[in-house]
């Protein structure tokens, strides 16, 4: 039933997206579905100016950036977010639920369909390995790089086991079973205790993912390439954002990336864990705008 609903929604929004794009980019919010590599990819485009493509982590959606769109768009950026296939409102074909390489191809194809030759491209958590893959494939598409609570290292034995367990739990008990597992790391204890609305918002996003998406993303994270050698090849301006209380990929991983990407900048976000871009959005937005203003 859920897949049938998503397919119907995909068709509806595909028709709507054509109408939204027909008027051109006038600074208004555009939202719809795009047929991409056999999948239906949901996107939101808000604002006008320098494009900024933001890619979410596992097992979230583009709504992770709901607290960033206005601030960035109002400052003169065209903020584009997508739901990776199998997440949010996007629909994956049965024969390709997703991989780091596929997510990267999807993102580049979305840029093509939205007439975005190049952009500041950023990724949170799983979005980071996707960004690295995009850079290895098409470095000319980058005006700058934004790495948010992510990692360049391949998964170690312990992490591989964690992702395997996450996939099995999703298969056995459904996407909703991952909410408790993930939110204890996404948000600090203070936020979980005092801001139930934040907990519900992110929890609802996790519940929206498909089982196939949960399994594919877990496998993608478990089998991700070692991107440490890629760091030295990055020549575009790069900002690294890191929640001070991130326990998934703690600050030392961000510091290592900063040391290996020439000229990169690291900003630690206080009072925030793995979903720092959402939990302390004002601080994250200031850091992004301060950095991005030097690229214009």
From TrEMBL:
The keyword Translocase does not apply. Keywords: Hydrolase, Signal. Residues 1-22 form the signal peptide. GO terms for molecular function: hydrolase activity. Residues 51-280 form the AB hydrolase-1 domain. InterPro entries: AB_hydrolase, AB_hydrolase_1, AB_hydrolase_fold, Epox_hydrolase-like. It holds the Pfam family Abhydrolase_1. SUPFAM superfamilies: alpha/beta-Hydrolases (SSF53474). This is Alpha/beta hydrolase. It comes from Deinococcus radiopugnans ATCC 19172.
